Amino acid sequence: EVNVRGPKESFVEALRVNTSLIRRKIKNTNLKFETVRVGEQTKTAVAIAYIKGIADEALLEEVRKRINAINIDGILDSGYVEQLIEDEPFSVFETIGHTERPDVAAAKLLEGRVVIIADGSPQVLTAPNLFLESFQTPSDYYERPMYACIIRVLRIIAFFITIMAPAVYVALTTFHHEFLPSKFMITMVKAREGIPFSAFFEALIMLIAFEILKEAGLRLPKSIGQTISIVGALIIGEAAVSAGIVSAPLVIVIAFTAVSGFVVSFLIDQEFILRISFLILAGIFGGYGI
User: Fold this and answer.
1) Which of 265, 218, 219, 262 is nearest to 98 (CA)?
2) Radius of gyration of the chain (CA)
3) Which residues neighbour 67 within 8 Å (Cβ) at sequence distance 6 or greater?
4) Which of 108, 120, 158, 231 has a CA that sits 20 to 30 A from residue 72's CA?
5) Can the peptide bond before residue 128 be classed as cis, meaning omega within 30 degrees of 0?
6) Torsions phi, psi of 119, nearest 5?
7) Residue 234 in 3-state DSSP?
8) Average pLDDT, rounded, for the chain
9) Is 6 helix (H, G, I), strand (E, B) or coil?
């Protein structure tokens, strides 16, 4: 949760440090912390934070009930709690938010949310979580409102680009040629000349290759992760186009898709699932599938 302007502090693994960081933001006797022990073997301390008089009592009671109903051997991170108490476990979207920033947690409390803090985790949970909160950043509240609104709209546009761009490319080049200008269509046909795969399989291969490179760069140490990016972007991408395995226009589409995906960092996992789903629908049914 990188921000340009605002506090640089974050939560740590110690529960009492995290509660004190929130208390430092909200100096109010109505700020309450209820601590329960969760996990048959680990007996992990989990704190429920709320502001009395602002938080909805029905919401608070529901959170208490779900946490007390957890039956598991161990809680090692707040992610365990999140998956055991969320509303829709099979949804690709999260119904419980998470943050590592005390200022964000304090802001959620002031909005009437409930914050759940697990000992041993630097990520606290906020309940409930709205879909549009994924497009917000702490900097939005510290910057000028006009610029913040424009940037939020830009994030929403980037989200739709990253999940739709490969699918739209496949639908246009495979099913709906009439939507493309004649000169642009001729350029696309020349670029795809000699490519052994259909547009659908070409896009699928490129998306999977991108996910592999992203995962490799994420798991390796930073000094080596940069090398993976250079090898993937420059060497493999250039070689694939030169060898005639993929077309240059698709490389541009996938690159733009990847960059747009990083704009909304909270939805990176969901973007991959939606991107592949829309691509498969476009490959089978074209624009109607999308």
Assistant:
1) 265
2) 23
3) 36, 38, 46, 48, 81, 85, 116
4) 108
5) yes
6) -65, 135
7) helix
8) 88
9) coil
Q: Which residue has the tokens 């110690």?
A: 14
Contacts of 214 (CB under 8 A, 6+ apart): 258
What is the distance between the alpha carbons of residues 112 and 51, in angstroms, rounded to a whole number? Answer: 7
CB 73 within 8 A of CB 61: no
Determine the residue type at 37: R
Q: What is the DSSP string of 175-204?
A: T-GGGS-HHHHHHHHHHHTT--S-HHHHHH
- Give pTM, 2 decimals: 0.84
pLDDT tens readout for residues 163-203 = 999 999 999 988 888 888 888 888 877 777 777 888 898 88
Contact 256, 161 (CB under 8 A): yes
Structure tokens belonging to residue 169: 């490319």
Residue numbers in the chain where pLDDT is lower than 70: 223, 225-227, 229-235
Burial (CB < 10 A; 0-12, 13-18, 19+), residue 23, is: middle
DSSP track, 95-133: SSEEES-HHHHHHHHHTT-EEEEETT-S-EEEES--GGG
* Packing angle, helices 15-25 and 102-110, rounded to 10: 60
Element spanning 48, H or E: strand 44-51
Q: What is the spatial distance between Cα 225 and Cα 213, in angstroms, rounded to a whole number?
A: 9
DSSP 252: H
Helix (H), strand (E) at residue 208: helix 199-219
pLDDT in tens, 98-124: 999 999 999 999 999 999 999 999 999
